[in-house]
C-alpha cells in the first residue's frame, strides 16, 4: 500500500512560483489499477513523480507499507526506485545502441532478476530479441519499455500518458498488454492520462484539478482496452 499524506510541491520561487500540488493525500492499494485523470497542468505528472520517488515533495510524506521514502537519503531513494518501481513514459527511453534483449536485461539486472526472457515473450516480442529500437514500430518500442520495466518485477508500475504517442489500434494493444500482465503478475498500476475513456479501465479514478484531488471514484466494472471509447 502507498500512502501519500498532504503532499505539497511548488516549482520556482517568488513571482514565477508554480504551485503544482497544494496538499494532496491519496492511498493506493496493492494490486489496484489507479488512474490519475485531469487536464494538462493539473498536477498529474507531479503527483506520479512524488508517489514513485522520482521527486521529493516540499511538504508531506509518501509511505510504502509504512516506510516513508521521503525520509531516505538520495542514495537509498535511488536504490529504492531502481529495485521497487517500474516506469513507463510517453517517450520510450530505450537505449538506442542496445537490442531488445539487452535493453530488457538491463532492467532485470537492476533488481537482480536473471529470468527476464519470459517477459519479452509475454509482451509479444519473442521474435524481436535482436532488433534495435530504431528497427521497431512505436507500439513495439513501448512494449519493449513495458518488458524492461516489468523485468524488475516491481510491486508498482507507474505510467505517464503511455499511449500519448501511439495511434488508436496500437494504443489499445499496449493497454491490453498492461492489464493482462497486471492480472498475471499482480503488480499495482498507477497511470496518468487526460483521456477519460482510459479511466474506465481503472478500479479507482482520481480526478485532479489545479494541484488538488477533486474527486475519487470507484468503477464497479473495469472495461477492457477494446471496450473503451478512444
Ligand atoms: N520542473 C518544473 N518546473 C516548473 N514548473 C513545473 C515543472 N513541472 C511542472 N511544472 C508546473 O506544475 C504544474 C503541474 O504540472 P504537471 O504535474 O506536469 O501537470 P500535468 O501532468 O497534469 O499536465 C504546471 O503548471 C506545470 O507547468
Ligand atoms: Mg503530465
Describe this entry's structure for a reader.
This protein is of the alpha/beta class. The protein has a single domain (30-54, 77-218), classed as Rossmann fold. 30% of the residues lie in helices and 27% in strands. The protein has helices at residues 44-52, 74-84, 100-110, 117-122, 138-150, 168-185; strands at 2-11, 18-28, 33-37, 59-64, 67-68, 85-88, 156-160, 188-193, 204-209, 212-218. The strands form 2 sheets. Strands 6-7-8-3-9-10 form a 6-stranded mixed beta sheet, sandwiched between helices. It has a 4-stranded antiparallel beta sheet with strand order 2-1-4-5, with helices on one face. The longest helix has 18 residues, at 168-185. The mean pLDDT is 96. Bound molecules: adenosine-5'-diphosphate and magnesium ion. The site of adenosine-5'-diphosphate has 12 residues, from β2 and α1. Magnesium ion is lined by residues 44-45, 160, 192.
Question: What value does the average pLDDT take?
Answer: 96
| Element-level helix/strand string | EEEHEEHEHHHEHEEE
| CATH level 1 name | Alpha Beta
Morphology: globular
Distance between termini? Answer: 31 Å
- CATH domain fold name: Rossmann fold
How much helicity do the residues have? Answer: 25-40%
What Rg is obtained from the alpha carbons, in whole angstroms?
17 Å
| β-strand amount | 25-35%
CATH superfamily: P-loop containing nucleotide triphosphate hydrolases
Number of strands: 10
Level-2 CATH architecture:
3-Layer(aba) Sandwich
How would a textbook summarize the main sheet?
A: 6 strands, mixed
Number of domains: 1
| Count of discrete alpha- or pi-helical segments spanning 4 or more residues | 6
Derived from helix and strand composition plus strand pairing, the structural class reads alpha/beta
Low-confidence segments: none
Could you give the order of strands across the largest sheet?
Answer: 6-7-8-3-9-10
List the ligand species: adenosine-5'-diphosphate, magnesium ion
